[in-house]
């Protein structure tokens, strides 16, 4: 049988559900998810198989108005994710009215030459009237190949979407072995899982003010792995919050992250977390490279 393989760029505003969708299509968690915008900082490729087709799904950071250097790098990574794409999949949160930011994004996507499909996500919490209004507006603005209505969270409509994506992929050999689910290294996965815990366990702006750097990643003879990660923050007060009373918060972040990294890598994990105050981390070129962003 002839193999098919193609690149799908998953674009959308922050929190539209891009990472949740990529995980649903892959059938397992490869991208971190949180209710906070800009959880996804770099580009990550999730790899899904449907029949004879291998789908390379590029999960991107949301597209928004950049304010700081890290923002600019994230938005650049998002648009960069469309390079060479066979299809742009625009994910829209259909449980809310389209706002001016999403409209700006729609205008930008409209100017792209690649074929487009629209994915109206979160139908589980959307009302029917709203859905139809949004669908009509997007149909007029983008002239997409197709519009899907799904819930990435419940999985509703995801199988149909996957079949359609597979049909649209060009003929060509698979790029990855069939059991590979993402292009992330184990080391990157480990750093992302810890970052996800920061998003889940810390309030307000703190996760945005932090970064994870892997200091050491050590495969041991007994099959386990020892991972040393540094959580960088800009101020002592931020460090105090992350560490928590008698270290309780950091311990909780560490134990949740360790369990999940262990599950994902399928091995025993020893995780060592250490918080470092570095007022200039946002200017550290190495950190950007570590998470796959251009400086
Ligand atoms: P991203 O920023 O576009 O990657 O969005 P995420 O995948 O991180 O999801 C943002 C938030 O929306 C998370 O809290 C998800 O659980 C939630 N979410 C994603 N898809 C759905 C959906 O289909 N229905 C509902 N109700 N929530 C969703
Ligand atoms: K998010
Ligand atoms: Mg995301």
From TrEMBL:
<protein>
    <recommendedName>
        <fullName>GTPase Era</fullName>
    </recommendedName>
</protein>
<dbReference type="InterPro" id="IPR005225">
    <property type="entry name" value="Small_GTP-bd"/>
</dbReference>
<feature type="domain" description="Era-type G">
    <location>
        <begin position="4"/>
        <end position="171"/>
    </location>
</feature>
<feature type="domain" description="KH type-2">
    <location>
        <begin position="202"/>
        <end position="279"/>
    </location>
</feature>
<dbReference type="InterPro" id="IPR027417">
    <property type="entry name" value="P-loop_NTPase"/>
</dbReference>
<keyword id="KW-0690">Ribosome biogenesis</keyword>
<keyword id="KW-0472">Membrane</keyword>
<feature type="binding site">
    <location>
        <begin position="121"/>
        <end position="124"/>
    </location>
    <ligand>
        <name>GTP</name>
    </ligand>
</feature>
<keyword id="KW-0699">rRNA-binding</keyword>
<comment type="subunit">
    <text>Monomer.</text>
</comment>
<dbReference type="Pfam" id="PF01926">
    <property type="entry name" value="MMR_HSR1"/>
</dbReference>
<dbReference type="InterPro" id="IPR015946">
    <property type="entry name" value="KH_dom-like_a/b"/>
</dbReference>
<keyword id="KW-0547">Nucleotide-binding</keyword>
<dbReference type="InterPro" id="IPR004044">
    <property type="entry name" value="KH_dom_type_2"/>
</dbReference>
<keyword id="KW-0963">Cytoplasm</keyword>
<dbReference type="InterPro" id="IPR030388">
    <property type="entry name" value="G_ERA_dom"/>
</dbReference>
<dbReference type="InterPro" id="IPR005662">
    <property type="entry name" value="GTPase_Era-like"/>
</dbReference>
<dbReference type="InterPro" id="IPR006073">
    <property type="entry name" value="GTP-bd"/>
</dbReference>
<feature type="region of interest" description="G2">
    <location>
        <begin position="38"/>
        <end position="42"/>
    </location>
</feature>
<keyword id="KW-1003">Cell membrane</keyword>
<dbReference type="InterPro" id="IPR009019">
    <property type="entry name" value="KH_sf_prok-type"/>
</dbReference>
<feature type="binding site">
    <location>
        <begin position="59"/>
        <end position="63"/>
    </location>
    <ligand>
        <name>GTP</name>
    </ligand>
</feature>
<feature type="region of interest" description="G1">
    <location>
        <begin position="12"/>
        <end position="19"/>
    </location>
</feature>
<feature type="binding site">
    <location>
        <begin position="12"/>
        <end position="19"/>
    </location>
    <ligand>
        <name>GTP</name>
    </ligand>
</feature>
<feature type="region of interest" description="G3">
    <location>
        <begin position="59"/>
        <end position="62"/>
    </location>
</feature>
<comment type="similarity">
    <text>Belongs to the TRAFAC class TrmE-Era-EngA-EngB-Septin-like GTPase superfamily. Era GTPase family.</text>
</comment>
<dbReference type="Pfam" id="PF07650">
    <property type="entry name" value="KH_2"/>
</dbReference>
<keyword id="KW-0694">RNA-binding</keyword>
<feature type="region of interest" description="G4">
    <location>
        <begin position="121"/>
        <end position="124"/>
    </location>
</feature>
<feature type="region of interest" description="G5">
    <location>
        <begin position="150"/>
        <end position="152"/>
    </location>
</feature>
<keyword id="KW-0342">GTP-binding</keyword>
<comment type="function">
    <text>An essential GTPase that binds both GDP and GTP, with rapid nucleotide exchange. Plays a role in 16S rRNA processing and 30S ribosomal subunit biogenesis and possibly also in cell cycle regulation and energy metabolism.</text>
</comment>
